[in-house]
Amino acid sequence: MMEKMQLVQEGFTHLDKAVRLDPENHTVRFYWGIIGLSVPTFLGRLDQGVEHLEKAVEICEKDPDKVKPELLVSAYQYLAKGYELQKQSQQAQAVWEKIIEISPKSTAAEEAREKLKEVKITEARPKPKEKSQEKPGELDSLLKLGEDQLEAGNYVAARETFTKAISLNPESSRAHFLLAMAIGGDVEPGYDERIYEDQEFRTKGAFGVMKHIERAVELDPENKELRLYRGIMSVQFPFFVGKLDQGIADLELVMNDKSLPDSTRATAMYHLGFGYRKKALPLWIKVVTEYPNTEAAKQVFQEYVSRECMVDVSAFKKDKVVVTFQLGFRDEIPPQTAVWVEDAEGNFVRTLYVSGFSAFVKERQVQLPEWANASNFEPDATTGASIDCGKHSYLWDLTGHDKKRVKDGVYVIKVETHFWPSMQYQMASAKINVSKQPDEATVKKGNFIPFLKVEYLPQK
């Protein structure tokens, strides 16, 4: 997956440059549009893809004699698909009709006719009768039930309850707010087995939270509790949600409202600081990725070297290997990282740590190819939340994934990390000799894992 994402990013870079150099090239616009429709939705390329397809069609229509008919039809097909993805049904219908007009006997025309039939069938269906108004107290009862489910941590049930409440009264700001909290609670703990079947379930959750909290604010714009919650979510969510500026504005509003309690304003101030820092981060990423050999890039890496998250090995009295390393960079979101052990012949021994996404998504999106190939996605129950920049340490108790003590000999500790969306990557490894004598190895190579130290400490 890492290689695929990198190729996609590079592809957009080259296509953008090609468009700048030759803006009337319909072929370049056409392929930009295809890729824009094909990549995951959270990359935010759909609207641009549709725009390029519209431009490609416009260029072709100006001079149809110089364009192969099948290319024009294909461009219309992808444009219709783009409108469908944007849920612009009328525009999609117009394009289907155009395909039938210019190529009536083609397979594309047959598909367009089928699409138009589906639309007519849908429009012909009788609209459901409006539900009767809610019974007195029914909404309040649902909200109370959902709040109890929220407090108990039963987020799935709470989502169902608040969704039912909204169906009774779509104008209930409180119901939308609570549904946003339930969705957030469901996805907040991190990656789990659900990511294997749906790699975008947390992404969808983030957009679901924003959809309902924004509706709640729309219904009750003077409610500062809602503005605070929307502000916090907007600055905490990943960059692709695209609400950072909105979040900063919400938090500034709450912070400057002197009628609110000090604790509320302090909370807004803290998250506002987080938002300001996050807003500056893309500039540092650009320095590192576009100007890696400059003094400025060195200064960026130096900013990341002081954080520490170290394991306490003092309580472990048996033979052990301590692995300490530095992650020297921060991206928009924490990187995917794995730490594992191989023997001298390259056979997998055990995973010491792997980020949750990589562990649960497995072969569906390979972020860490070396670990994936070595371990066959065997996490050894060491899956954890993604670690960020700074110093980290892990302990190996000299057992393999079968929980049995390994034989004495030479072993290789490997650390692999992949940053996204900058697509930066590094792997580091160090050999250690497990015997009767202590051993130590230190590797210093590269900026993304600038330091790796492995210590074998036999029991005294």
Descriptive account of the structure:
By secondary structure, this protein is of the alpha+beta class. The protein folds into three domains: 2-124, Tetratricopeptide repeat domain (Serine Threonine Protein Phosphatase 5, Tetratricopeptide repeat, Alpha Horseshoe); 140-281, Alpha Horseshoe (Serine Threonine Protein Phosphatase 5, Tetratricopeptide repeat), CATH 1.25.40; 308-457, Immunoglobulin-like (Sandwich). It is 52% helix and 15% strand. The chain has helices at 2-21, 26-38, 46-62, 69-85, 89-102, 107-124, 138-151, 155-168, 173-187, 194-197, 201-219, 224-236, 244-255, 262-290, 295-302, 356-361, 369-375, and strands at 308-309, 320-327, 336-343, 348-355, 383-384, 390-396, 409-418, 425-434, 439-443, 451-457. A five-stranded mixed sheet has the order 1-6-2-10-9, with no helix packed on it. The protein has a five-stranded mixed sheet with strand order 5-4-3-7-8. Strand 7 and strand 8 (425-434) form a beta hairpin. Helix 3 (46-62) runs antiparallel to helix 4, helix 9 (173-187) packs antiparallel against helix 11 (201-219) and helix 13 runs antiparallel to helix 14 (262-290). The protein is globular and about 85 Å long.
List keywords for this structure.
Serine Threonine Protein Phosphatase 5, Tetratricopeptide repeat, alpha+beta, 460 residues, single chain, Immunoglobulin-like, globular, five-stranded mixed beta sheet
